[in-house]
Specification:
single chain; mainly alpha
């Protein structure tokens, strides 16, 4: 096992101190988790917390950075060049897309309902 020395702000050091022996485990976990889906879930939650109208829900689209990342992953998939981590990421993005489709389908009935 190797030793790594990091310089971090005092506030972060205070937060890390209680983690002690778990720090290597948490670092490894953070490297396995795709960053984009976590930000995308946050964007979806923030959007929904704002109580959007059905029309706003229908118009919802993922942030541009997520769309760009998905294009890159799809290109790599077509070229049969995806890593295991990228396959996991694209699988998660597909689950998120399914969630958004289901949310939009629920809003669609409110948009198309004629009083």
């Amino acid at each position: 096992m190797r030793t790594i020395t990091l310089t971090v702000p005092d506030e972060l050091a205070d937060q890390l101190a209680p983690l002690g022996d778990r720090l290597p485990e948490l670092l490894a976990l953070s490297l396995r988790q795709p960053a984009v889906p976590a930000r995308l879930y946050r964007a979806i939650l923030d959007f929904l917390v704002g109580a959007p109208s059905p029309a706003q829900i229908a118009a919802f689209a993922p942030p541009a950075e997520v769309q760009q990342r998905l294009r890159i992953l799809l290109d790599r998939e077509r070229a049969d060049m995806l890593t295991t981590a990228e396959q996991t990421e694209i699988d998660e993005l597909e689950r998120i897309e399914h969630l958004v489709v289901m949310i939009k389908a629920g809003a669609l009935s409110a948009i198309t309902t004629v009083p």
